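Kindly review this record before class:
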Amino acid sequence: MATVQYELKETLLRVEGINLSYGDRPVLRDVNIEIKNIVRPGVKQGQVVALLGPSGMGKTCLFRILAGLSAPDSGRVLVNADQTEVQRGMVGVVAQNYPLFAHRTVMGNLMVAASDGPDKKKKALGLLDRFGLAEHASKYPVQLSGGQRQRVAIAQQFMCSEHFLLMDEPFSGLDVVALQEVIKFIEEMAQSDELKTFIVVTHDISSALEVADTIWVLGRDRDGEGKPIPGARIQKSYNLIDCGLAYQEGISTMPEYLALRQEIRDLFQRL
């Protein structure tokens, strides 16, 4: 197993004591998590965190809180090195179906998301070039493939959020080829900037292990009789760098990958 040299530096995102209930039904309970800047010698290295959990565990609720789209009953989310409390628009959000404005071109979709400023067109052109979309700038969403629409949606969100991007089920419904393209694209984008931070919300354990450097598993505790206690929290966090499962090719064939995938699958059954 190859050893990867790295250091954990400043905190980029901190979640402190998040609680959320709908009426008298707890959904999230005392959620505490943290993302630190991963620094590797001689390499630009952003962060990719996968939030895993079975359906119905509150992943979408936590997703909205992390993005500043919903407020918790208590607790807070702090982002960036200065640890500012998150507000709507500070974190980019790519929803599952890559919603874009159908009546606007690719360039139009990016421009409408940009903050006012003299350099917004230059920034949009730079993102289109980086994402391999420059030749599609004048096309409309209906003229694009699913993968192209996803890249436009990501570029659109980077027009308003420099470093943070939340992705909701980005692997859902993809064939094998498209799935590998998405995984490769996220990896490449994370390596484009030291502070780029992706949080991928998914129930796809295999894809999460391939793309992430850290995994959070959301689920419920059990009482003494084995019954679930209402309200989910982070049950386990995995550092995939220390597991030898980050920044390497072909991890899906490694015994460590197969063992950890089975461990998380077994954990899902108990949540």
